[in-house]
Specification:
By secondary structure, chain A is mainly β. Helices cover about 10% and strands about 40% of the residues of chain A. Chain A has five helices and 24 strands. At the A-B interface, helix 1, strand 7 and strand 16 of A face helix 1, strand 7 and strand 16 of B.
Amino acid sequence: MSDPSLAEDPNVTPEELQLATRNHGMPLEGLRYDVTPAGMHYLLIHFDVPETRSEAWRLTVDGRVRSALGLGLRELQALEVVTRRVTLECAGNGRARLTPRPLSQPWLVEAVGNAEWTGTPLAPILREAGLEDDVVDLVFTGADHGVQGGEEQDYQRSLSVADAMQPDVMLAWAMNGQPLLPQHGAPLRLLVPGWYGMTSVKWLTRIEAVPDRFEGFQMLAYRRRDHADDEGIDVTRIFPRSLMIPPGFPDFFTRTRTVDAGRVELRGRAWSGRGRIIRVDVSTDGGTSWRAATLGEQPTPTEWVPWEVEWDAVPGEHELVVRAADDAGNVQPIEQSWNHHGLENNAVQRVPVIVRPGP
Amino acid sequence: MSDPSLAEDPNVTPEELQLATRNHGMPLEGLRYDVTPAGMHYLLIHFDVPETRSEAWRLTVDGRVRSALGLGLRELQALEVVTRRVTLECAGNGRARLTPRPLSQPWLVEAVGNAEWTGTPLAPILREAGLEDDVVDLVFTGADHGVQGGEEQDYQRSLSVADAMQPDVMLAWAMNGQPLLPQHGAPLRLLVPGWYGMTSVKWLTRIEAVPDRFEGFQMLAYRRRDHADDEGIDVTRIFPRSLMIPPGFPDFFTRTRTVDAGRVELRGRAWSGRGRIIRVDVSTDGGTSWRAATLGEQPTPTEWVPWEVEWDAVPGEHELVVRAADDAGNVQPIEQSWNHHGLENNAVQRVPVIVRPGP
């Protein structure tokens, strides 16, 4: 079982730095794009990007099915083609803001992206294979291989039959109109809208139908546990979060923002995998008072919602805070509760800014 | 003047982490690609990615010229079109391996990429503008704006007339056959082959011909200084470096590599902005003994050279080391010398691996 060590020191260990120089978040000014440009989308790769060749790629569908399938990329592309914008977020987003800090990929708040994915729906493929009546889970295996928590493994995650058969679950071979980049799962990946990113298995080689609940390493690693021995709760759908484009301009090293006094349009995006975003509130005084932002239209049901609010900025130091709520009753917490793996950390974003007299 | 603080603690500060989650290196398995896929190429952005619109973009060429120019993207694209592969590396690559560590972007060794850039040569544009006889430097201004070292600034770097007129210096609007991504300088950037990346100004808005040596902030920041008060030496062309694709598979957190015993093909790339790569040596015993790797052909003069060497791996712990030399007499140092800003840190790469009995 994955059992990360905890660090009290706010400074980040060399091991965390190794992960942070490989994986990366979306710079927050990237929130200005409806569709996140390739390469700005967040990326978390557990092991290495595997070497793959699309010509030779085969997806196997087997296990408790009536007819096992072996599908090449061209055969998949001859099936129904769908294009869908999906906001993906890492389940560990926000982890580096916890104290003590679970030692893993040290995300602040930027592990998100909204891309346009093209592929084919999964459900018809499962129907063609014909799941036996006793099937409980579908196990998705990626070509990425390594060791985690002392266990050598191919990256594997599962979905229940009901979740796997959802009509928006797809196998994707293109992102933003281009063939998948190697680091995003080329040539084929699973895409499960609304769920945290660990579910959308990259470099997908196999779907196995199994008669028992799958309890592989990555299923146990992505559970929200109060402490190391807590059985915990599965991490599944994305809790609401809102992020703003930090206004003004940054200091290179501290990233402190300077804003000119006067009317400032604060803008950002909000999303939830658990319901529709119904409210985004913005505070410009560190959370003492709040104003409702104006929500834009959500272009499609599986992507983020733009929002904006005007701020009459007066000189001085201010802390901007933003908080989203969905129609399932989920609201971003003001203070971050703690859990052992640092998952689902969706506390509000705080952006300190210095307002200077207008030019 | 930029004067980074120094840290003795090997753990990385929250400010460095903020930079590491925005900027990113090339995962070393990316060395397997002749041309680095978009989004895997290293990225260092001092301030924010600016919001730009290619339709409205104008490049101004002015200052000490006989006829100032204002060029839109279409006008530039009607000029001579060249496509060139260029290996770019950040001048601060390797900084996080220094003790004490200059506080800035905390690179390990992965701040590199080799892309295929399309644009137009700079020299004919400068000839069309007509440089006055007293011009000393060309100052290149980007649209990125912020504060560094207490100084508010647009990002600016200069080249001497002789360096700017080199035939391989270009203004680029495409990368790997696609319009520039926002984070790589869309819609237009400077590209100076052989030089560290800070010279290749992104989001290029202006080229000004000036009669004096330009000593803007980013010129002083990129000097190799022995200590804070040292006048230092300009950082210009890339010193040789070689990196290998770490063999075997990684541990998620420690990134320790496991390799099966037997014949292992070690592969990588080497580059220098100061001469041709003439030698890559590989050690599998921590630097005690060395073997020459076989160099592949360098496809074009401005990009990296592939190399490979076979290793008969026997069970146990090993440290792989790789070292490149160019025909100008530059060799990667075994131990890293120190400098105040952490620039030109091209000491050899070390890759610890555990070899287990073959399967």
